[in-house]
Amino acid sequence: MLVAATHEWSDMSQKVQAVIVRAKDAPVETVTIVVPDPGPGEAVVDILTCGVCHTDLHYKLGGIGDEYPYLLGHEATAVVSDIGEGVTNVVIGDRVILNWRAVCGQCRACAKGQPQYCFDTHNATQKMTLEDGTELSPALGIGAFAEKTLVAAGQCTKVDEDVDPGAVGLLGCGIMAGIGAAINTGEVKRGESVAVIGCGGVGIAAIAGAKLAGATTIVAVDIDDDKLAMAKDIGATHTVNSKNTDPIQGIKELTGGFGADVVIDAVGRPETYKQAFYARDLAGRVVLVGVPTPEMKLELPLLDIFGQGGSLKSSWYGDCLPSRDFPMLVEQYKLGRLDLDAFVTERIKLGDVEAAFTKMGEGKVLRSVVEL
């Protein structure tokens, strides 16, 4: 009786619907892709929901690379449907949030007990393809605008099933980056003052993080009154419209004339970084979580850097460790202390991703969430 007795003998590749972009600034397309059977250390997951993030738009516009075609999507909740050899952290049927920091456990950061800074994170080894065999580049090593996707098993973090997948899936990228910028990088403490410059999804998440950490004065800064209103809803105690008011003076006036203990730049431009630098108190912390572009340069008087004291920190993915932070934040959500539902502006289908990018550019949404 000739029966395949081992996993690697089978060919379980599957064809599913997914959203790709073929060339720089081309419109996205919904196409059929081929997802292979998981190899050693890999997992295939059924996508439940996936947020539409600015990073996906950067891939579309050519701002990250030119390894087209890209399989877009990465802020996802999923169910594990198959696992490869040697996978022990998840089993088939687990509800997971996907992440782009599958830590190696062996690099110098991991070896000194700081896996949140892992210098050798990894993705699935095999490639997903179009039906003609063209290899796809998955966004952030995930590619979750798809009915199924292939990831490294370490990119799966098991979470409770009794929560809205559309809300908690946003922890996979932008919301985690913002919350982590406040809690992990900025180390906001109870009773401290925090200012956040830029109230897009990441900035508003930083406000939520500051509130969760116990900050008592939280100042939101933006040029858009609608975004400032959303910031107030999430947890900002004060707002400054920097189109009308100098943000440095505005923040200082709201913090006793001294400046904030922590100022988070969620924009990532030289102008906003300088505002953050000068809007903090002596010995305060500046956190850069907005992503600059390669040509940007920063110039500051070295004496001011010395004289202001404190620290200047960059936040990579909110300096998060998914296995530690995702379950903790889901629990805070369940306890009513973290309003992830407020970040879900609309729920859409795979075919609506292009329209969601347009709404994003117009500043009309915090997150559009694709439901599969």
TrEMBL record:
NCBIfam families: mycoS_dep_FDH (TIGR03451). The keyword Metal-binding applies. This is S-(Hydroxymethyl)mycothiol dehydrogenase. It comes from the Bacteria. Belongs to the zinc-containing alcohol dehydrogenase family. Keywords: Metal-binding, NAD, Zinc. InterPro entries: ADH-like_C, ADH-like_N, ER, GroES-like_sf, MycoS_dep_FDH, NAD(P)-bd_dom_sf. Pfam families: ADH_N (PF08240), ADH_zinc_N (PF00107). Residues 26-370 form the Enoyl reductase (ER) domain.
